[in-house]
Specification:
By secondary structure, this protein is α/β, with parallel strands linked by helices. The protein has two domains: about 1-15 and about 235-415, Alpha-beta prism (UDP-n-acetylglucosamine1-carboxyvinyl-transferase, Chain), CATH 3.65.10.10; about 20-215, UDP-n-acetylglucosamine1-carboxyvinyl-transferase, Chain. It is about 30% helix and about 25% strand. The chain is built from eleven helices and 26 strands. The strands form seven sheets. Strands 4, 5, 6, 15 and 16 form a five-stranded mixed β-sheet that branches. It starts with a strand and ends with a strand.
Length: about 425
């Protein structure tokens, strides 16, 4: 258990490296001929899972303090892999992204999950059978068994639940022997697809698409080019830090690109809407505590922002409303229900109505809370406690290692002790 005391904060924290970018860059490095160097790497649990996967699939990985070198394969071999079990840990992105990549080979891969990922749906993966692979799930859930090769072709993808599978297709399709055309229905989290396309461009891959990201045409027989690539700061993890500054003092968060494709940079818009003081200097952001007002926000394109926004709303005057919460039920926990449950323990009223959430601001009161083994629930409760009454004690706080292993150390470093 971890106790977080109510306190003011002051100082600066470097934003953690983005695991979303890191995992994509590791996959691109696997598929490139030659050695890629990933600077400012993420070593969270999900990123480490990705590095283990690319090693299993034939890459040579060497990790240092400030970089990771990956000697890729250029094109995946048809045999000679170290083993046929790919373990994704609890990373949904690894599961959905590396399955199409594994489908490039004639090898029979079994792609396994751990923990909460075992209960997250994977039914869209069956689309790969239309591209020539044999692909099976366990009733729409992990493990996934796939044997390729996928050859390209015309397919339709349902993007209403996640864009992660589409990301995997966009990474694998350029190496198919035939061209691929993809029609996407009801795409959510569009910024993450734009992130994927931008990263692929850096690694020498061309993706043609319409403005709305509904139609994609990918030429086959392309080649990935090894790169030196810097992993940018993570807006998802930094959102908790920015909210901490808004409710409990002042905080510089450093290393956040303003031109990022990450959807969660929208946190700045919400903080401003709620009345927080926000100053931007290059890639550094200063947020100061003010009298916060209730806000309304649609999180459909950025569902990972909901937990830090609930922590923010808990300190706002009035009722805040967050729309677009339907997809939260298929995260590491049933995230909307977990937020309602744990914030009620902190004497903050949270009500759920189909696809929206209402949060009534007040003064969080310390209590014992359960993280539900969800890194973002643990961080949300911790941040909410900073300007509350009495300490908050978090069960299973170690789950933050999934995305932000140094979270509690960083928060402690800026707490002002009386």
């Amino acid at each position: 258990m971890k106790a977080i005391n109510s306190s003011q904060i002051s100082g600066s924290i470097k934003a953690p490296a983005s695991k979303s970018v890191m995992i994509r860059a590791a996959a691109a490095s696997l598929l490139a001929a030659g050695t890629s160097h990933l600077l400012n790497p993420s070593f969270c649990a999900d990123s480490l899972a990705a590095l283990r996967i690319v090693e299993t699939m034939g890459a040579d990985v060497k990790s240092g303090k400030g970089s990771v070198s990956i000697r890729g394969t250029g094109a995946l071999a048809t045999e000679g892999f170290k083993k046929n079990i790919i373990s994704c840990g609890e990373s949904g992105l690894c599961m959905r992204m590396f399955t199409p990549i594994a489908g490039l080979t004639r090898y029979n891969f079994i792609i396994e999950a751990l923990g909460s990922l075992c209960s997250r749906p994977m039914e869209t993966l069956e689309t790969l059978s239309l591209m020539g692979a044999t692909c099976e799930t366990s009733g729409g859930y992990p493990p996934v068994t796939i044997r390729g090769p996928i050859r390209g072709g015309a397919i339709t993808v349902d993007g209403s639940k996640t864009s992660q599978f589409l990301t995997g297709l966009l990474m694998a399709a350029p190496l198919c022997q035939e061209d691929t055309s993809i029609e996407v229905i009801d795409l959510k989290s569009k910024p993450y697809v734009e992130m994927t396309i931008d990263l692929l461009k850096r690694f020498g891959i061309t993706i043609d698409h319409d403005e709305d990201l509904r139609f994609f045409r990918i030429k086959g027989n392309q080649r990935y080019e090894a790169q030196t690539y810097t992993i940018e700061g993570d807006w998802s993890g930094a959102a908790f830090l920015l909210v901490a500054g808004a409710i409990a003092g002042s905080l510089w968060v450093k290393g956040l690109r303003g031109d990022s494709f990450q959807a969660d940079k929208t946190i700045l818009e919400v903080l401003t809407r709620a009345g927080a003081s926000v100053e931007i200097t290059g890639d550094d952001i200063l947020v100061k505590k003010t009298d916060l007002m209730a806000f309304e926000f649609d999180a459909t394109e950025c569902p990972d922002l909901v937990p830090p926004l609930v922590a923010l709303a808990a300190h706002c005057r009035g009722k805040s409303v967050i729309h677009g919460i339907e997809r939260l039920q298929h995260k590491e926990s049933n995230r909307s229900a977990a937020l309602a449950s744990e914030f009620s323990r902190l004497s903050i009223k949270v009500e759920l109505f189909n696809d929206k959430m209402e949060i009534y601001g007040g003064k969080p009161i310390g209590n014992l809370v359960d993280s539900h083994n969800d890194h973002r629930i643990a961080m949300a409760c911790a941040v909410a406690s900073l300007n509350g009454e009495r300490p908050v004690v978090i069960e299973n706080y170690q789950c933050v290692a999934k995305s932000y292993p140094d979270f509690f150390r960083d928060i402690h470093s800026v707490q002002v002790t009386s």
